[in-house]
Every structure is written in structure tokens, then in C-alpha cells.
Amino acid sequence: MSSRVMVRMAPALKGRRSPLTLTQAAVKRLKELRENSSIEDKNKTLKIGIQGKGCSGNAYTLSWVDTPKKFDEKVTQDGVTVLIDSKALLTLIGTEMDWFEGKLASQFVFNNPNIKGACGCGESFLV
Fold first, then answer.
1. Overall domain count for the chain
2. pLDDT, tens digit, for every residue of 103-122?
3. Which GO annotations describe the biological process of this protein (predicted)?
4. Burial code of 62-93, b = ≥16 C-beta within 10 A, e = fewer?
5. Which of 1-5, 57-61, 66-70, 119-123 shows the highest mean pLDDT?
6. Where does residue 20 rank: exposed (0-12), middle (13-18), buried (19+ CB within 10 A)?
């Protein structure tokens, strides 16, 4: 027999901010990727995660998935949906995802206020 539990949120928690915000450049690039993908890939969603690797211990992972896992966080902004792996959620809270396009490299950049240190090349970080 299961029991029911009633939960009430405090008024300050009702207006919860999104754990991840996307810059307009990131939104534009994600829309371009969606438009230029094959028909079967148009139903996939970008998923952001954290993997243990690199000099500082953690690195971001980006992958296309068909369906979200049970506890993945869904972030929708300006018509773009991104999933956050449930294991990475606490690490990414308050992060801004940007798209950088330069002469030598083009990449997504994460401006994460939770980072305590990073390696010299910028590929891995410490929380």
C-alpha cells in the first residue's frame, strides 16, 4: 500500500529560474543545426552532460538523443529545447551557453559560475 505525501512549495521557489540559459548566438546555431540535419535527426534533442576527464577532472559532453531519460531536465528557450543530464544538473545551475565563432575555431562555450578552476587549455574544469 502506498501513502500520499502533499508537498507545498515556498512562495520564493515558485518562480524558479532555468538551470541553463542560452544566448541568442547559441539559439541561432542550434536552429541552424536542426534545419541542416537529416530528416531522422530532426527529432533528436541536444543533451548536455558532464564527464570525468581532462586535467581538472570534468568536461562537458554534447550528444543528440531520441528521448530524454527519466530525470533529465528540459530547458526550452526561444523555440529551442535542450536536455540536461540529471547527473550534471547541480553543476550546471546558473550556466549560460554561448556560441563562439572565430577564425580558428567555432564552438559552444559554457559560462559557468560554479567552476572553481580550469586547466590551461580550457577543455576541463573543477567544481
1. 1
2. 888 888 888 887 666 655 55
3. iron-sulfur cluster assembly
4. eeeeeebeeebbebebeebebbbbeebbebbb
5. 66-70
6. buried
